[in-house]
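Lab notes, practical 5.
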Amino acid sequence: MSELVTGEAVALELRPARLPSRALAVLLDLAVAVAVYVAVTVALMAATASLDVAAQTALSIATFVLVLVGGPIAVETLSHGRSLGKMACGLRVVRDDGGPIRFRHSLVRGLIGVIEILMTLGVIACVASLVSARGRRLGDVFAGTLVVRERVPFSSAGFMPPPPPWLAGRFSGLDLSAVPDDLWLAVRQYLARMGQLDPRVGWAMAERLAADVAARTGAPVPPEVPPPAYLAAVLQERQAREARRAFGGAQAADGAAASVPVAPTAPAPAAPPPPPLAPPTAQPPATSPGGRPEVPRDVPPDRRSGTGFVPPA
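Output from the prediction step:
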């Protein structure tokens, strides 16, 4: 695998195409191009039989350039790096950053390919591809491109086997807080790749990792549990705890809020009745200086209540 870094600082892991697959793709492309060139040349010779030798030579050179040089450039540009031979072999031409190629990339590859493939019968291209760490020929170096494999065989390297069912919940009481992250990473990498290891080497690595984890947790590995199964069960327990810590807090809070009983509100006590009004105390009538009770102006002599209107003097 070859790591390419895109313009957005994203690392891409691509599998560069090696010399055998690239040579087969080039041979298929050349066979198609030569067949088209021969057919076009025969048709031109039949159509231009009345022309002189110079005109026929010029047409032959133009046909050679257009079919054997311009044809592959046009096909790679329009198909974004997949010629007929590359499609048959599962290859594609990409830029150094993993993006699709454009016309200038195909033009540089095609022009240099005339020298290192057609004129030298592919000797220069083979030597450059063998020397390069990623199998690049001179055209790829000058154009800033790379030929990669599109059809990569499936690999189960990233699959981690689950622990046996009889170990479910067996290590729920272990204290995993003292296990460092780098040890967890080593356990994950071992479980993901233990199918690719030699059985004896894999068993020894499992015993060593299980001993390290057991030393950090303070509990020995049960003798009836194989080390790979122990590592898988402990790792699953850690993942379950992280999931509960990440998602169980919010759910627990919601459940607690929903389960808190709400006390029924008691009716408000009735307001006490207002105290009875005290009877008005009789005020002694106002007396005049002569000892006679003073009668208000607005009260008529017959002691009836006045209307509040005072006639003018």
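Observations recorded by the TA: The two ends are 123 Å apart (CA to CA). The CA atoms of residues 28 and 85 lie 5 Å apart.
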